Each structure stands twice: as C-alpha cells, then as structure tokens.
C-alpha cells in the first residue's frame, strides 16, 4: 500500500487527467480500471497539449508503469494510433502494459452502437458511438474477444465467428461492409496483436507487487459516478462501473488494497449526451460557463450541457464511492459571476422537496435543483497556489462544499496549466510514502 483510487464524481469530464498526471509523477504505477476510448483526457505540459483516450495519464513520465486493466474495453486501432502518436513525439512508451484479459472492441461493436442509437431515435442515449456498450454486452454474454486472443489466429477466428453468429440479423444491413468480413477482420486484428504484443501482460500481479512494497499505485477511473451503470441515471449511463469499487474488479486487487479514494468534481456541473440534469442552465449563463470552461468533448467534440454545482448528486457520489477527499477543478471558470448557486435539494413536479438523490427515474427526470446562493468574486485566481491566496468568497465557496459533503478538499484547480493548482495540505492524509505530494 498505499492504493489511491481517483474517480469522477459527476457526469465525467471533471478533469481527472490533469489530477492523475500530477499525482502520477509521485506514483509507481497508474492503472486504468474501466471504460474505453469513450473517455478523453487532456493534459497540458509545458504548453504542449496531449489528448488521450485509452493510455493512462502517467505515460508522460518515462518508464512509469501505466497499465490498462482487465476491466477496460480496448479498441486496438485507437490504442496503436495513440502509441504511434506518442512515439512520434519522442516519448518512451516502454512502461505501457495492457491486460491480456481486457476485452476488445470489434468493428461490429461500432456498427451496433451506431445502429442502436439510430433505432432509439428521439430516445437515444447519446453514446460516444465507440462501441462501448455492445462490447461490454458481449463480455457479459461470454462472447467477448480478449486481448490475449490476438496472439492466436485460430482462437481469434473461432471466437469472432461465435460472437457474430447471434448478431446475424442485426448485422445484416452491413453484410457487404468489408469492416466485418471474417478474414479481413482476423487479419487486421492479428496485425494489432503483433504491434501490441510487447505490451500485453498479466497486469494484476504488477499492482500486487508494488502494493506489497508500500509503493503508491493510482487506480484511474473514467467517466463519473452519475454515469455508472448501477448507480447512475440509468439508462442514460455508460456500460461500466466508474465508481471506486470497480477499481478492485477492473484491476485485480482487493478492497483492502485501497487506502484513499479521491473524487474529482468541477466547481460547477456538465453533462454530455441525454439524461436527467437537475441543475442544468439553458440560458446565457450556461453558454458563458461553457465558453469559459471550454466545455466541448475531448472525444466527440460535442458541446457539453452546463449547470450549477449539484450537491445533492455530489453527496450521493461521495457515499457510493466512499470518498476520502475531494478535488475541485476549474474554480477559475466561475470568476466574474456575481451570484453563485449550489443545489442542496431537489423539487419534484408535485412540489415535493427532498435532499437525497432519488432512485426513481420518473422523479429524477423531472427534478429541478433548489439552490443556496453564495457571493462570487471578480479577482483573477489563476495565480493562487495556496488557499490563502484566494479571495474570501472563493474560499467560502470551497468551505461550503467541504462542510456539506463532510470530506476535505485535497486539491483545487485554478487554471488549465499543470502548475495552476492548489495543494490544500489535506493531501497529507495520504500515507507518509506519498506525503511529498503536498509540495508542487
Ligand atoms: P457510451 O459510454 O459511449 O456508451 O455513452 C453512454 C453515455 O455516457 C453517453 O451519455 C455519453 O455521453 C457518456 N459518456 C461516456 N464517456 C464519457 C466521458 O468520458 N465523459 C462524459 N460523458 C461520457
């Protein structure tokens, strides 16, 4: 130990990439445990912008173990392209490991994701169309193709044949699509296998060994609690479990290996795709926050829906994740807004008011936030490196969140750059091995 899990605690896009990148510098390994290339992490390093979809954020540190765990779904085309791009920029990718047990996104998963959304029409989920749902469905149906299958042509062909058989009807419109020709597909995936072979590994024992040696292992989540297939706003969710408990399953460690769970939340809220969003701002202020926060998807480029900070949902996320600390990102985006609102209750259509996150879909879909107001600030806060550097109202905003959730705020993001961060000192809650994290 220590094992530190970092998860999104809203609807994804909370800025996990930057936080994991900062902590990765001190860590011995970073392991992604769920999701796939539906995620997108942007890291700004020395003015250079890096965008990742699959590769864990720690890859920018030479030789660091960066693992894609068994719980991730891997599109090998995307992964090989990402690795090529990193190589072209002269980065050492020797530390990248891919679990042999991770499942592969196949060309027919992409087609089925598109077709499924088209069929839903108005009711569509707004998926990233990266084949995530169909791939996890095949995993559960025991028809998945795993990374290890890339290394054996006979097995690969047999498994693709078995996986496509029950989909014959739904794939019929694509019968002539060369993407799903058995031989061409096998050939293409064998080529991916050859390219990925040096990185394919049994990733769980890597984590065990480091944890036994008391080294810092970061488990990196994708998406966020409200997109969790069990605990999120189903069916408007992703097909995996972004909550912290999934770190164990998706990386192959036990609950007792986890010492700390940090949730990442923006100082406001955003959501991509359809589904309930009780604090949504569909007005000029929403547009202003979208522009100031650059709220356009890393993966799809879609404009994100924006809204006030939702403390009802965030307290729920705190509970389901067992958060021990909160990282508040993008506080600077709120600069210049005179009156800030935070939702502390919801109102249902029948005027009932409640403070717990509702489990019932028909209540949640119509719930609207009830707000407390807090005064804003005008001062530029991007230069703040300690809580004391922040205007009184910005500190009061953070204190309000921390008091409401009853957990400490461990870091605060005040700008997109790597150095634009406040380490609050609560990061010392980590074990002594990681106490250095408190110094930038
Ligand atoms: P899927 O994960 O592509 O199946 O999409 C399901 C839902 O999750 C859609 O609403 C997506 O917009 C959302 N989603 C998936 N990945 C992300 C992410 O990384 N950030 C934000 N939303 C996401």
Explained architecture:
This protein is α/β, with parallel strands linked by helices and 440 residues long. The chain contains 13 helices and 20 strands. It has 2 domains: 3-91 and 202-438, Alpha-Beta Complex (Adenylosuccinate Synthetase, Chain A, domain 3), CATH 3.90.170; 103-199, Adenylosuccinate Synthetase, subunit A, domain 2 (Orthogonal Bundle). The two termini are 22 Å apart. The mean pLDDT is 93. The site of inosinic acid has 21 residues, from helix 4.
Concise description?
The chain is an alpha/beta fold. Helix content is 30%, strand content 19%. The strands form 5 sheets. A 10-stranded mixed beta sheet has the order 9-7-5-2-10-1-11-15-19-20, sandwiched between helices. Strands 14, 16, 17 and 18 form a 4-stranded mixed beta sheet that branches.
Count the strands?
Answer: 20
Shape: globular
Structural category: alpha/beta
The CATH class of the largest domain is identified as Alpha Beta
Beta-strand proportion:
15-25%
List cofactors, ions and other ligands. inosinic acid
Chart the SSEs and their pairings.
Elements: E1 3-8, H1 16-24, E2 29-32, E3 41-45, E4 48-52, E5 65-68, E6 73-74, H2 76-88, E7 96-99, E8 103-104, H3 107-120, H4 132-140, H5 153-164, H6 168-171, H7 182-196, E9 200-201, H8 203-212, E10 217-220, H9 246-251, E11 260-266, E12 269-271, H10 284-293, E13 305-307, E14 309-310, H11 311-321, E15 325-329, E16 339-347, E17 353-354, H12 361-364, E18 368-375, H13 392-405, E19 409-413, E20 421-423
Parallel strand pairs: 1-10, 1-11, 2-5, 2-10, 5-7, 6-8, 7-9, 11-15, 14-16, 15-19
Antiparallel strand pairs: 3-4, 12-13, 16-17, 16-18, 19-20
Helix pairs in contact: 3-4, 5-7
The structure holds inosinic acid.
């Amino acid at each position: 130990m220590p094992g530190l899990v970092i998860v999104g605690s809203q609807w994804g896009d909370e800025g996990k990439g930057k936080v994991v990148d900062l902590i990765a510098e001190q860590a011995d390994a970073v392991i992604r445990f769920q999701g796939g290339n539906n995620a997108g992490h942007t890291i700004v390093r020395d003015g250079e912008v890096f965008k990742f979809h699959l590769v864990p954020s720690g890859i920018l540190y030479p030789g660091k173990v960066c693992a894609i765990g068994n719980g991730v779904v891997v599109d090998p085309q995307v992964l090989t392209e990402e690795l090529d791009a990193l190589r072209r920029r002269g980065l050492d990718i020797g530390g990248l490991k891919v679990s042999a047990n991770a499942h592969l996104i196949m060309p027919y998963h992409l087609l089925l994701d598109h077709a499924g959304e088209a069929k839903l029409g108005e009711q569509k989920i707004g998926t990233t169309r990266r084949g995530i749902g169909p791939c996890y469905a095949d995993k559960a149906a025991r028809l998945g193709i795993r990374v290890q299958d890339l290394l054996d042509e006979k097995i690969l062909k047999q498994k693709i044949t078995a996986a496509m058989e029950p989909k014959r009807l739904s794939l019929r419109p694509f019968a002539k699509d060369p993407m799903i020709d058995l031989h061409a597909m096998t050939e293409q995936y064998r080529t991916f296998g050859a390219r990925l072979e040096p990185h394919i590994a049994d990733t769980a024992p890597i984590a065990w060994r480091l944890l036994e040696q008391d080294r810092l292992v970061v488990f990196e989540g994708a998406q966020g609690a409200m997109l969790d297939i069990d605990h999120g706003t189903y069916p408007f969710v992703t097909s995996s479990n972004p909550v912290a408990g999934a770190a164990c399953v998706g990386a192959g460690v036990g609950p007792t290996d986890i010492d700390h769970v940090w949730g990442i939340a923006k100082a406001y809220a955003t959501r991509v795709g359809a589904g309930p969003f009780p604090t949504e701002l569909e007005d000029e202020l929403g547009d202003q926050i979208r522009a100031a926060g650059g709220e356009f998807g890393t993966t799809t480029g879609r404009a994100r829906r924006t809204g006030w900070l939702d403390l009802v949902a965030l307290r729920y996320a705190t509970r389901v994740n067992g958060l021990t600390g909160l990282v508040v990102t993008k506080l600077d985006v709120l600069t210049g807004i005179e009156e800030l609102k935070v939702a502390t209750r919801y109102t249902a259509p029948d005027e009932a008011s409640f403070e717990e996150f509702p489990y019932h879909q028909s209540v949640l879909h119509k719930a609207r936030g009830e707000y407390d107001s807090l005064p804003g600030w005008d001062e530029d806060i991007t230069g703040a490196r300690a809580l004391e550097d922040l205007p009184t109202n910005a500190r009061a905003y953070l204190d309000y969140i921390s008091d409401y959730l009853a957990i400490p705020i461990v870091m605060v993001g005040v700008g997109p750059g790597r150095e634009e961060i406040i380490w609050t000192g609560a990061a010392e809650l980590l074990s002594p091995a990681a106490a250095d994290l408190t110094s930038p």
